[in-house]
Amino acid sequence: MAETRRLTDLIHGHVGSLTYIPPENATAQPGTFHSSRVTAEPPHFKVIGSSAELYPPSKTPAPEISSNLWQERRVQKRWLLQAHPEAFMGNSALSELLQENMDRYSKVEGEVSDQPLLAIGQMTNVSNHSRITGSPMLAAATGESGELLRLARIDQSKWKWGNDKRTTLQPSVIDPDDPEEEAIWASDGLPISQVKFATSLTRYDAIRWLIVQKQTSTTILHPEYHKVPVAQSSASDLNIHQSRLSRIDPNPILAVSHKMTGGNAQVDVAFNPNSKGLPPQIAIIDECGYWSIWNILGGNKLKTRLLPYSCGHVSDGLLNDLPSTTEHPAEKHGVLFVGTAKVDSFWEDGSQSADDSGGLAQRSSHLLIWNREKYEVVDLVSHIALPQLSLLARPKSKPDAILDIRVSPANQNHIFVLTMRTIYWIDLFTKSTQEEEEEGPKPSILISCPRLLDREGLRMTTCLTSEGGQEAAMVFVFSPTHRQLQTYWFGQSKTSGLPYWHRDTLTLPQNGESASGDIQSLEIHPVRLTRDGDASSGHGAYYY
């Protein structure tokens, strides 16, 4: 009997956690069961239509590393010891210093940044000065070493199903053959490690920024779309790319050097929107775990400047100043703004439609910092750390580690944690009972589901979707070296409010040799589906 259950579980999957919901009238009818996993009419995720290559690869294939390199090093060391023993031994003091430096950076030696190099967001459309709006834009790292930034305007197309003229699908399209609809921005020639949009649609001071991070600096661009082609407002000091006229102006307004954040390599950045007179903020964390928060003063039309707000370390807590030297080893770190601060709705922009403002971040109340072993949530006002959850398994045979953490696009109080074994859906601010109200909010695990792919180099991205008339979150897990995409749906039941999840697996299409390389970044955005007039009986109405 036990073996039958085990085979059924392996073939059909686990039904999840069961919760009994008692009825309002227990004497008249029995209650119902809620399964944390969708078992009836589960959604599917698949590719429809064909794929297209917008731009050819900008990097040449890397040469293969010789498999006999370690043997050559052994021969070199043996010859050096026999021919020049004094040079082989070296200075003992210098040797200890070099060894200490190698140990400190051993965890990040040879690692490739897994931060997104592709992003889709909004730029400021100033083609009509009487009505400043936002226009969709694509930003992606390009160039031989990823040192350039490509900015391209996105248009909306209209698709219809046969005779169904009332239902319209509006996917995004890019014209790569129009040079005036794209711009190339270059700075110092160093490779870009992350590209991220920062958008805040407040009533009086909307922000449409683009954050470009390198190991040595974090630059904020305020891209603008003009009616006629213009020259870039700030050219690069290095003549890396020949500038040309374009309707898109990258317009860099601010740069934060690594010397301002402790001197170590910067590895992640987060944006906290402005609201109710509070200035926008950025948080930067370096490879040794030191984080700093900066207020951005001045706005888009005035001279922008930085003002330090707070700083600290993932293990040492809050600090008065960032040290110039450190003993903490360099490893993977991340930073996020989480939680929703109490803001007067008067300051929100009511003119923005739900499609334009959906999924945009609001003013946050807490800062989340993490590394491969733990995470920490700090209150931005009281600087008090919230309780933690023990997420990592501690088996002797196989280690576990945190690979990535993302804020839920449906609720800023929720996060998704990707480990080497599991995906966790966590509520950081669970509503406390009356007895626990004085202790403050506590985190709780809403859903924990195992992963099909068991690899250390997995990456995660999220997307906001609508499920049954309410917002839900989709989480995508993929490996750079494999074209299998795991799709997860996370939502809450409309009737009971209990969480549920579902998983689907998709193999990404591969057309031609250009798609045979590793996946560097993956962005998935919902496509708008509209219907005009009364209900139609065509295929389009079926999806509406």
UniProtKB/TrEMBL annotation:
<dbReference type="InterPro" id="IPR019350">
    <property type="entry name" value="RNA_pol_I-sp_TIF_RRN6-like"/>
</dbReference>
<dbReference type="GO" id="GO:0001163">
    <property type="term" value="F:RNA polymerase I transcription regulatory region sequence-specific DNA binding"/>
</dbReference>
<dbReference type="Pfam" id="PF10214">
    <property type="entry name" value="Rrn6_beta-prop"/>
</dbReference>
<dbReference type="InterPro" id="IPR048535">
    <property type="entry name" value="RRN6_beta-prop"/>
</dbReference>
<dbReference type="GO" id="GO:0042790">
    <property type="term" value="P:nucleolar large rRNA transcription by RNA polymerase I"/>
</dbReference>
<feature type="domain" description="RRN6 beta-propeller">
    <location>
        <begin position="115"/>
        <end position="504"/>
    </location>
</feature>
<dbReference type="GO" id="GO:0070860">
    <property type="term" value="C:RNA polymerase I core factor complex"/>
</dbReference>
<dbReference type="GO" id="GO:0001179">
    <property type="term" value="F:RNA polymerase I general transcription initiation factor binding"/>
</dbReference>
<protein>
    <recommendedName>
        <fullName>RRN6 beta-propeller domain-containing protein</fullName>
    </recommendedName>
</protein>
